[in-house]
Design a protein that fits this description.
Elements lengths: L13 H7 L12 E4 L2 E4 L1 H18 L11 H17 L4 H12 L4 H8 L3 H21 L8 H4 L27 H9 L1
Antiparallel strand pairs: 1-2
Helix pairs in contact: 2-6, 3-6, 4-5, 4-6
């Protein structure tokens, strides 16, 4: 019998893929990978789940979009990466770009979007699933810094910079209070 190689080919994404797959998926049967023509492929249910999780984070973080004082540079950079990667992944697919822009970014109802693009309800949702797979794959597999998982994107240290760690000294400045605020109030009142 012919060996198809290891089922979980990418060791860096193995845990993520297994955690994101749907247990009821008929393609991967809850493993997150399936064999096709002798190759191990990540299941489409994983890419759709990545898309849904990233869009949830986008909607949670865009509450700060109009209040620039509360939005950090890293959050702005992440939101820009999300939008630019989605547009790059959908380059050449004008229908999918329109569905992404209207249905996901502008968060319009499916009835409005399907009427705008001229698709029936069933064909509209098939187009949405295809768009989610393409964009979710781009968000998950972009190297060296993928948009998903977000905790790695927002981490303070880069993985390849761990050997360059230096010890930081604390600089005592006369402008930085060394006492707790409550102690400072008591000292000022006495």
């Amino acid at each position: 019998m012919k060996s198809h190689g290891p089922l979980l080919a990418d060791a860096s994404l193995t845990g993520t893929i297994l955690a994101l797959c749907l247990p009821s998926c008929t393609s991967c049967h809850g493993i997150g990978r399936y064999l096709s023509r002798g190759r191990s492929n990540t299941c489409r249910c994983v890419y759709r789940k990545v898309f849904d999780l990233v869009m949830t984070q986008v909607h949670n973080r865009t509450g700060y979009a109009h209040d620039f004082k509360k939005q950090t540079f890293k959050q702005s950079e992440w939101l820009a990466d999300v939008q630019l990667l989605a547009m790059r992944a959908l380059d050449g697919h004008e229908l999918s770009k329109t569905i992404y822009r209207l249905g996901c970014v502008e968060d319009r109802d499916y009835k409005v979007v399907s009427a705008k693009v001229g698709l029936s309800r069933g064909n509209y949702f098939h187009a949405v699933y295809r768009m989610k797979e393409v964009v979710g794959r781009a968000w998950l597999e972009t190297k060296p810094h993928a948009v998903y998982p977000t905790d790695q994107y927002f981490s303070l240290e880069l993985p390849d910079a761990q050997h360059k760690r230096t010890k930081h000294r604390r600089i005592d400045s006369p402008f930085v209070p060394t006492q707790q605020p409550a102690a400072m109030v008591r000292a000022a009142a006495a």
